Amino acid sequence: MRTALVEISESHDECIYSQVKFLNDAGVAVDLILNKRLEQQIDLYKHLCNSVYFVTPVKKSVFKKFRQQLQLLKILKIYDLLVYNTASSSKMVRNLTFLLLFSKVKCFGVLHNGRKLTSSFTQKIISLKIKHYFVLSDSIVKNISSQSDVSLSSFYPIYFPKFKQSIVKPKGEIWITIPGRIDWLRRDYEILISALAKAKRLNSIKFLFLGKLDKDSKQGQQLWAHIKAHRLERYFITFDSFISNEDYHNILMATDYVMPLLKTDESYLKYKISGSLNLAYAHHKILLCKRYFEPLNDLRENGVFYNEGDLSNVLQKINDNSLVRPKGYLDQKWSCTYQQSRYLSFLGC
């Protein structure tokens, strides 16, 4: 069965390796059809793939776009099974799936926001061909399965190439890592800064912004100005340049807690997850989350929770090593064998 993973956009490359691993370990030869900008990201595991084909989407001229899509269509038609790693929010994906409508190619998709199944006209067109979708948590399946006539399954893309641990945390330090780019719209930096300003003695804790903190950008300037205004610089470790995948995962291996720092948003309870969660799951790290997110089973099993008024107390307990941590990651779902089995079973491999 000729199989390919397709990623036309520049996003969600973090979900590709797990799928390649699941298929490769099961003896399924898999090709990658990727946006050219993802070339560096797959360098460590491209040897697991049968072949890799790169696409640079045309941005101008309707005629040139259509010609490129017809060329790509010829390639896609040779496969028995296609999995779109981002099966939404793309006119090219919409057009390609529509053009494949009467072909025998079986198409699956990874949906990163379940709400699109009921709220997006583009998604309805894509779903004319893609009748089987993966979503990224069990809770999303429960929340949207009754709202749509497509077939749904969950899988957790929480596996990454193995890196030798080369970063050693200084003795006595406790690392709390906040993965991802600086984003005031999604992350509640104010609650953290306020809690640190109230805390009396946190001599062990360091917060790591695991992403480039550009102090010349508007968002970076805003965040660093808030930190400096409260004289909290000593609590933070920041990076002013791109962090390599090896260093990124080394820091996560060494960290003690992962803190998504998400603002209250119902969509994270029902339709989507933050990439911070998958990184914590991947390295079996305890999450430090707002109590608003406690209803999520995955977090309740593996998280420590705080309210706006008691975050400083929670941080004090972490600093003093008096916090009762959950054992975490006891469910069989966190094993690679379990996730691979679910993924392959849904594909019919």
Using the 3D structure, state the CATH architecture of the largest domain: 3-Layer(aba) Sandwich
The order of strands across the largest sheet is 3-2-1-4-5-6-7
- Rg over alpha carbons: 21 Å
In total, the number of domains comes to 2
Q: How confident is the prediction overall: mean pLDDT?
A: 94
What overall form do the CA principal axes indicate? globular
- Give a short account of the largest sheet: 7 strands, parallel
The separation of the N and C termini measures 9 Å
Number of helices: 14
Uncertain spans: none
Q: Kindly state the percentage of residues in helix.
A: 25-40%
Which CATH C-level class of the largest domain is it?
Alpha Beta
Order of helices and strands: EHEEHEHEHHEHEEHEHEHEHHEHEHH
